[in-house]
Design a protein that fits this description.
By secondary structure, the chain is of the alpha/beta class. It has 19 helices and 15 strands. It has helices at 6-13, 62-70, 85-90, 104-116, 127-141, 167-175, 182-193, 237-275, 280-287, 309-328, 351-366, 384-396, 411-425, 427-430, 433-444, 448-457, 462-469, 473-487, 494-507; strands at residues 19-22, 33-36, 49-52, 75-79, 94-98, 145-148, 154-157, 198-200, 210-217, 220-228, 293-300, 333-336, 339-345, 370-374, 404-406. The strands form three sheets. A five-stranded mixed β-sheet has the order 1-5-4-3-2, with helices on both faces. The two termini are 64 Å apart.
Length: 515
């Protein structure tokens, strides 16, 4: 089981909740636990612990930092931003801070949950503990119990034999979602406005009342716990349920922290897999990638004006991840340089439809046009870096009317794009008559370069070239004679014609439709 590091902790609860001021030993230092400082007892040796400076003003925490370093702690957390940064650097210990108005017990709960979290193979991390808690509450209160998230999704439920249930509970457990109704909405409004367990009437003639309590941590509503009241609940059921809510808060925070930590590590692993720097078989096993797959890339349309592009890109990541997880379950997505990449498993028949759905949903949610590119389907994880490169090439093409494009659909255009890059990097490939043609056009106002391209595109047929140029064939013939004379171009050499066409199409970007 991996040890939580300072970097892991900051990835999970960093930002406004926890700020890092200095980390002389780096972000990879292990963090084993979060402990509250007791000013009335000596500080014991706690290698790897994070000490919360309870009762110590941030500006006066220098002696505590020195003592923590001597006890081999990983770092000290103060309240407020004016902590002893220089002392922490001098003693080689991390210094972090929480907000000035943060409650120490809530900060401790949050940090302890994140430190105790471990990456897991599924998004159900911690739900086994919630099922055990539901059984414990059901046994103590005498009523069937369910734990829900804020969206009324059922996360866990009790299985104590013989306890009465009603149809609402059966339907909720069957679909893992509380059935929606106006009466339900009103009950949840009452519940989340309370700070203690509340008794709620049955929703139908055949239903049973409920005893429910909101689950909160630091002012944030994490969910709720519901107990079916068949008239035989224990006398202390409300107190038991209140205590159970505190435990549920810890378990829900820990599960969320574990999911965030696992998601961060998977994102880093996917980044290295797409860069080609990860061991592909190992990465594929950890990410759950098996068999054929392709990389899909999603990006905000560069032509659109986006005031906060970075934040909008993060919201795009959420949309892509949500849609992919709804389709494939556990899924790997990552945001790199403004582009959201997702690995789509399978042979690829339905990948385009999924990409189109994501583009449509993201455009509606973000109010910004979104483009998508699909790389080539590859046999396994070893080819995902190449599939990502395909998707990147597609995104670099000028935006077309279709917001979704697969590399196979635009293979000719991406091939010319790559040829242009390769030719531009090599002097011997970028030299030649095409430069003389362009120079003559620039100096004399002629259209010899476009005339050449149209002639090549028409298979060196003069009438066909004239139609593309909308001129008389004699005009086209005259231009080509003048071109050979002034730009020293040998149009009788098939090799020179081919090279000249490639250079004008790729390096000069001239096509038959170029005005």
């Amino acid at each position: 089981m991996d040890t939580c590091t300072l970097g892991d902790l900051l990835d999970v609860v960093g930002g406004p909740a926890l700020r890092l001021h200095t980390a002389p030993a780096g972000r990879a230092v292990p963090v084993t636990e979060a402990v509250l400082y007791d000013g009335h007892a000596p500080l014991p040796p706690l290698p790897g612990a994070l000490l919360l400076a309870v009762g110590v003003r941030a500006a006066e925490a220098g002696p505590l930092v020195r003592a923590a370093a001597e006890a081999e702690l990983a770092g000290v957390v103060v309240r407020g931003a004016d902590g002893p940064v220089e002392e922490a650097r001098a003693h080689g210990i991390a210094l972090l801070s929480v907000a000035e108005d943060a409650a120490w017990h809530q900060a401790h709960l949050l940090l302890a949950s994140a430190i105790g979290a471990r990456p897991a193979a599924s998004s159900d991390t911690g739900l086994g503990d919630l099922f055990a808690l539901a059984d414990a509450i059901a046994a103590a209160t005498g009523g069937a119990t369910a734990v829900e998230d804020p969206r009324q999704r059922i996360l866990a439920y009790s299985t104590v034999p013989g306890q009465p249930v009603d149809e609402d509970r059966r339907q909720g457990i069957l679909g893992l979602q509380v059935p929606a109704s106006p009466e339900n909405t009103e009950q949840y409004r009452r519940l989340f406005a309370a700070d203690r367990p509340v008794r709620l009437p049955a929703l139908s003639g055949s239903g049973l009342p409920r005893l429910a309590v909101p689950v909160r941590a630091g002012g944030e509503t994490l969910g709720s716990v519901w107990v079916v009241d068949a008239g035989s609940l224990a006398p202390d059921a409300e107190d038991t349920l209140a205590q159970g809510a505190s435990t549920a808060a810890l378990l829900l925070l820990r599960a969320r922290a574990a999911r965030e930590l696992a998601r961060h590590r998977n994102s880093d692993l996917l980044r290295r897999l797409l860069d080609g720097t990860a061991d592909a078989p190992t990465a594929a096993e950890r990410l759950g990638v098996a068999g054929p797959a392709r990389v899909a890339a999603f990006v905000l349309d560069s032509a659109a004006s986006v005031p906060d592009a970075e934040r909008t890109a993060l919201r795009l990541l959420d949309v892509v991840r949500l849609q992919c997880e709804a389709r494939y379950g556990r899924h790997a997505c990552v945001l790199l340089d403004g582009v959201v990449y997702a690995v789509l498993p399978g042979p690829g028949e339905r990948h385009r439809k999924l990409a189109e759905d994501i583009v449509a949903r993201a455009g509606q949610a973000l109010r910004v046009p979104v483009r998508a590119a699909l790389g080539e389907v590859v046999p396994g994880a070893e080819g995902l870096a190449d599939s990502r490169a395909d998707a990147d090439l597609v995104l670099r093409l000028p935006a077309t009317e279709l917001p979704v494009a697969a590399v196979d659909e635009v293979r000719a255009r991406v091939t010319l794009l790559r040829l242009a890059e390769v030719m531009a990097e090599q002097r011997e490939l970028s030299a030649g008559a095409w430069r003389r043609v362009l120079a003559y056009d620039a100096g004399h106002g002629t259209e010899y370069a476009r005339t050449l391209v149209c002639w090549f595109d028409a298979g060196c047929d003069m009438a066909g070239a004239a139609r593309l140029l909308a001129v008389h064939p004699n005009t086209c013939r005259y231009r080509l004679r003048q071109l050979q004379q002034h730009a020293r171009v040998d149009l009788d050499d098939p090799d020179e014609r081919l090279v000249l066409w490639l250079q004008l199409r790729t390096l000069a970007g001239i096509g038959a439709a170029t005005p």
